[in-house]
Write a structure and sequence with these properties.
Number of strands: 20
CATH superfamily of the largest domain: P-loop containing nucleotide triphosphate hydrolases
Strand order of the largest sheet: 5-6-7-3-8-9
Distance between the termini: 60 Å
CATH architecture of the largest domain: 3-Layer(aba) Sandwich
CATH topology of the largest domain: Rossmann fold
Number of helices: 20
Helix content: 40-55%
Structural class: alpha/beta
Largest sheet: 6 strands, mixed
Amino acid sequence: MANPLLQIDTLTKSFGDLVLFRDISFGIAEGDKIGLIAKNGAGKTTLLNIIAGKEPYDDGRVVFRNDIRFAYLEQSPQFDPELTVIEACFQSDNEAIKVIGRYEEIMASNNHKELDEILTKMDLLKAWDYEQRIKQILSQLKIFQFDQKIGELSGGQVKRIALANALISEPELIVLDEPTNHLDLDMVEWLENHLLRSNISLLMVTHDRYFLDRICTQILEIEDKQIYSYKGNYAYYLEKRNERIAAHTSEIDSAKNIYRKELDWMRRQPQARATKAKSRIDAFYELEEKVRQRHAQNNIKLSAKGAYIGKKIFEAKHITKSFGEVKITDDFNYIFTRYEKMGIIGNNGTGKSTFIKMLLGIEQPDSGSFDIGETVNFGYYSQEGLQFDDQTKVIEVVQKIAEVIDLGNDYKLTASQFLQHFLFAPARQHDFVYKLSGGEKRRLYLCTVLIKNPNFLILDEPTNDLDIVTLNILEEYLIGFKGCLIVISHDRYFMDKVVDHLLVFHGNADIQDFPGNYTQYRNWKSIEDKRVAEETKPEKSDKTIEKPKSVEKTKLTFKEKQEFDALETEIQHLETEKERLTQQLSSGNLSSEELISKSNRISEVIELIDEKTLRWLELSEFD
């Protein structure tokens, strides 16, 4: 068995009458990469804070292995805004920083008794080149201005500095709370590859399902105040969770049948209650408790009617926008069509949010205009969120907008029913807003946007702080949405499910229109990058032997023409097979053997698509 790094035993945590979890136990061993999943408000961040020693608990034990190197990335890290980037990194509470501080204290004093010991520790922790290594990691995370003040940075940049602080200490165990929030796609993929290559053991909370699937070897789920463990990645978790729910439902159905018989027995002999077997009476009440259990049905199919939208949506005409020397758009033109579902991706700072703010009229272009159709009714979910009155009840927030929402086909929901679809139980609806977790507030904000029944939704980073259950509900809603959609998101899984094409912001007003989802774009870009690398690779020269110059090729041979035509069909068949395999792997209906088989096959298919597409590109130059 692997060496245990952390053991949690019978841990209980509550806030007043609200019990988050009771008597939960689990361990983290060397090499474990664990994802923690739960609904918003179920205690994910609280559990991580308890492990990090930032929050007390009611009962139980949290035991680390002695002398373990531990790091914690908080969901919303805080630094003194007056510190520079490099100063903030030296404020970190890790062992290397402590040793550097102690070394400087000793050197500044006349007492050098501990010098030999501290020099040994400096060598052991590689503290001599700490600043050089932190700058190297910051550069990999695209932070280059080390003297810039924290107060001048975006939320994403601050998160990357905190991430660099966590990684620089080379921890044996790292705990990450929503590490992909506010990171652009390049940074998410960099972190994914870094964690895959490293030997770090980790426990993380994230809504990024591709991230979970590719990194994690185990999933922990908090549900009904208990913890469930699944030894596998996210796809395996989906399969086994469905099996657990099915078994639980079957168990409740069986208990109901026994309960009816026992209830009849209890009712038939009230006068002899005192003489009945106490064990049977106790068993009856336990059975009654089990029968009352209801497993939350999270596979809700929620679709909105969507107000009528005409053929004219919007046209961007010669849009130019810049901030100083930073160009966002330059003479940009685009005609948006009816029922279009567009995703917008690109690195932070390339102008994605500015673009949609210009469309909404919040930001004005330097030149050009947006011509918007008369029937368009925007619904806007902003990255900044909505400020609620903390003393307002949840149900009142939604009722102020609409008492009833029309879903079409004579199907209507009250505000309370709509909130239940987004996992606000009736009792929770009458809580004040200040009692909600950060994720629950984002979920409530989402409800306030959707209940207005817009016909054009614009969602700017909607997945940040939302749990996976809510994301599944939102995805189903958007797939069935009878209107237009623009989504800015760094969540690759989410984008793959809901958009049909992309605008890719490369920076400096370079905007690419790509006809496909995110995974298709990444596959294309990978092939394109390889092709460009091959074209720009310097030719090898032979100084001793001069090879005859080859005649420049201008036309395909007959066999190459046949191969070229066949490749198009083969690539299409492989793409179809890949889509089918992706759907099967995401269905949660596969056995473990089928899961392994289809996972291996999809890897082969992706390699074949890359290989054949590269060959097709070579031949297409001469067609």
